[in-house]
Amino acid sequence: MYKNKKVVVVLPAYNAALTLEKTYREIPFELVDEVILCDDHSKDNTAALALSLGIQHVIVHEKNTGYGGNQKSLYNKALEIGADIVIMLHPDYQYTPKLIPSMVNIIGEELYPVVLGSRILGMGARKGGMPMYKYIANRFLTFVQNTLIHYKLSEYHTGYRAFSREVLLGIKFNQNSDDFVFDNEMLSQIVYAGFDIGEVTCPTKYFAEASSINFSRSMKYGLGVLRVSFCHWLQRMGIWKFGMYPEIVSS
Predict the structure, then answer these.
(1) pLDDT class for 87, splitting at 50, 70, 90?
(2) CATH of region 7-236
(3) Where are the beta strands (DSSP E) in the chain?
(4) Interval 96-129: pLDDT, tens
């Protein structure tokens, strides 16, 4: 725990058997109370490996629900077991678990209720092997999002995130997409609800076993990001209302 706050790490897993143990072994268990893994109908032995490692909560989807659907199961379970600080860590070892203490400290000290591990701050993305087309798309989409959402982040597309319990209870994440754009819908909701977001520099690794979406899925994701950003702008300007946002902006 951190200052009597329960710390829970959630792992959205799909075919993660080759990297799960390495990721899990680096989690700082002197700080983390419990771990939840959701296996989104993997074709390998991810769930069995998770159980053998002693992960306390293993959720298995009977059918593949998608990256967003996986996270919904994880956050709902984290809230159910009383988590005060929730860190979403990919079990493909693309992001280092060694940043967990820093992220927990920021939320635990009430500096920010949301922390993102940014690959763009510093030189982490390209140095870690991010393909050039993904880097360019990241920079373009982030520019558009900062403009339309009226916020300033170095990137909106990292999969390394930490949230306070208040944030997860304060947004309607269960109404979001089950696909990859879930992450951007969630950040849009967080900004609209008036929660501040902190960022920490995060090294990243691109390698054969790390999960990554292909070019066509990346295009679909990019169009989804533009849609979310435009919807946020319409909501913020009072032109149109969308059910995924709260009734009143708190800032």
Answers:
(1) very high
(2) 3.90.550.10
(3) 7-13, 34-39, 57-60, 85-88, 114-118, 161-164, 197-201
(4) 999 999 999 999 999 999 999 999 887 666 676 7
